[in-house]
Amino acid sequence: MVSAVSGQLNNYVDYLVKGEDGKAHRFDHTTITVNLEGLKDSPQMYDSALAALNAWEVTTGLRFNVVTNAGADIVFNNDGQGSAYASTSYNGSGYTTSAEVNVSKDWMNGFPASERWGDGSYGQQTFIHEIGHALGLNHGGPYDGSGTYSKNAIFDIDTHQYSVMSYFSQSEYRASGASDINLSSPMIADVMAIQELYGNLSVNAGNTVYGKGAAAALRHTDLGQLSDSAYTIMDTGGLDTLDFSNAMARCVVDLRPGSFSDVNGNKGNVTIAQGTVIEIACGSAYRDTIVGNGAGNTLYGGGNSDKLTGSGGADRLLGQYGHDVLVGGYGKDTLSGGGGNDRLAGNGGTDRLTGGAGSDVFVFAHGGGRDTVTDFQDGTDRIQIKSPSIEYSDIDISDSGGSAIVAFDNIKIVLDGINASQLTASDFIL
Length: 430
Prior knowledge:
One of its GO terms (biological process) is proteolysis. It is found in: Secreted. The structure is a single chain. By secondary structure, this protein is of the alpha/beta class. The protein folds into two domains: 8-195, Collagenase (Catalytic Domain) (3-Layer(aba) Sandwich), CATH 3.40.390.10; 205-429, Alkaline Protease, subunit P, domain 1, CATH 2.150.10. It contains seven helices and 27 strands. The protein starts with 7 loop residues before the first helix and ends with a strand.
């Protein structure tokens, strides 16, 4: 089995595209016609297939037009015997000329009703998988119809966390720690494979909301309504929001491209695709952790005691309620603790820190910068200085323009509305 080393994802994607024989196949167009007439005797299967097609659209940028003529690019049927499969035909140039997706009714009826239909069901995941074959994707390893991770996986990451084309549950790759749950979209490797086949298509290019308040086409991203599901977000532009304010358990959200987040008590179930930039994230009523990306992020902690961490860019971190920890990045950040006893650290850049109500600690380290604390409360708030061997006598405190200036090791801290004479050693944590 290939070790989980840098580059394995690219190799895995290449296998999804070319398979064992090293040959790629795809349609020669990105708007694909589909015929669903063969599913009309089962409205639930018809709707599930439509939802699966939508999942491919909103995750890859491919488009599907429903037609009724027999010459559609992909024809859907349910008349097979105890099976789900896709078959394709190619021309001499290797382009796909037609495909059939057949998910038999008797096979589907073998599952509990809750697993047959709707977002997050195994039935819908099956449609997503078979559509992937019709589009040109292979399984993630040399298996078809059956196989085990220990015997057949040639990539450690060949699990559902990375691809809907895999046969293997997320927990098979133990290093990931991901939860075993159904998929409601193609996953990160599938997105990359479609890009390799069809190019980088525009998708969700406007100002898009994922999670609470998502549009109907993105309803599968609202895990406050659909608690146990995994999906990938691909977004090529706009000012975008990932809102988990209605989540039913603690969230660990990572906005960095290629990252996995833990939502609703599940592990690694929400993925940010490569090249995707989400600017705004909202936490839940639980103890969340949110990490920003290289853009200028706005991060909302929500209820409870949260940890928010910026990265590059000019970030806004708003703890809101609870005892929060806010850590800025290298940009010009604005940190606001809100209610509770908060810890605020601007880190690099010229930052603006507001503790809000409660006993807050403003944290500074050596290395340069000029930060402003807007609401320092003498006798209630404190300043923590993390610098090797610093003593109170090393700190220079002066007045300037109605503010106290605290200076040390090329750092200046402006305390708005405070006089230097108000500050004593008890205001500092060294």
